[in-house]
Amino acid sequence: MGVQATPVTGHRAWRLPAEVDTDQLAPGHAMKHGLEVIARHCLEGVRPEFAAGVRQGDVLVAGPGFGIGSSREQAASVLVHLGVAAVIAPSFSGLYFRNAFNVGLLLLRCPGAETIADGEHVRLDACAAHVLRADGQVLPCEPTPAFLLDMVQAGGLLPQLKARLGTARRATETP
Questions:
Q1: Distance of alpha carbon 66 from alpha carbon 93, whole angstroms
Q2: Residue pair 107/135 in contact by the 8 Å Cβ criterion
Q3: Is 148 helix (H, G, I), strand (E, B) or coil?
Q4: How far is CA 103 from CA 76, 155, 175, in A?
Q5: Burial of 18 by CB count in 10 Å (0-12 exposed, 13-18 middle, 19+ buried)?
Q6: Which residues are within 8 A (CB) of 27 and not within 5 positions of it... i.e. 6 or more apart?
Q7: This prediction's pTM
């Protein structure tokens, strides 16, 4: 079962610059705390209003190199915690890319991401690999492998593995 092909409407875009690093997403001074505290400081150096203003289903739109820096998983987990539906950028750090999918955060590699305006509403179709802008323009994205889309739908790697183990366990149990 994959991510639904029907685009979801209502994703408000938060524009960010290129090379947003993991320290901006999960600042070092907050790392001794849980996600609740880290979330209050997410992107405070780039968009101070972000943590208080982001709403469930909003998306981040960034320039190339999103997620560079350390390999801290909290930099992706905090966005899931805040309800961010996806991050759209031309490119991502390799470590961030894998961490994001592991925690259930959708990333879309979209060469035209930087043309999306701050506050613009977009529709995402991860299966068809595109972003639909309010003016009807379709921005193509690189296709995301089905196994990663399945991971996002499951809520991340651990929930996906737990579901698989539960299914396998039920299949081997005798009535």
A1: 6
A2: no
A3: helix
A4: 7, 7, 35
A5: middle
A6: 38, 41, 42, 44, 45
A7: 0.88
Cα 76 to chain center, whole Å?
Answer: 7
Whether the CB-CB separation of 38 and 84 falls below 8 Å is answered with no
Report the pLDDT value the prediction gives residue 88, as an integer from 0 to 100: 98
Cβ within 8 Å of residue 35, ≥6 positions away: 74, 77, 78, 81
* Burial (0-12, 13-18, 19+ Cβ within 10 Å), 8: middle
Average pLDDT on 110-126 reads 95
Question: pLDDT digit string (tens) for 25-48?
Answer: 999 999 999 999 999 999 999 999
What are 149's two structure tokens?
């889309």
pLDDT at 103: 96
Mean pLDDT of the chain: 90
Which ranges of 42-156 would DSSP assign to H, the alpha helix? 50-53, 74-81, 94-102, 146-154
Confidence of residue 3 (pLDDT cuts 50, 70, 90): very low
74-81 helix and 94-102 helix, angle to the nearest 10 degrees: 40
What pLDDT is recorded for position 32?
93
Q: How far apart are CA 10 and CA 171, in angstroms?
A: 40
> Domains of the chain (ranges plus CATH)?
8-172 (3.20.19.10)
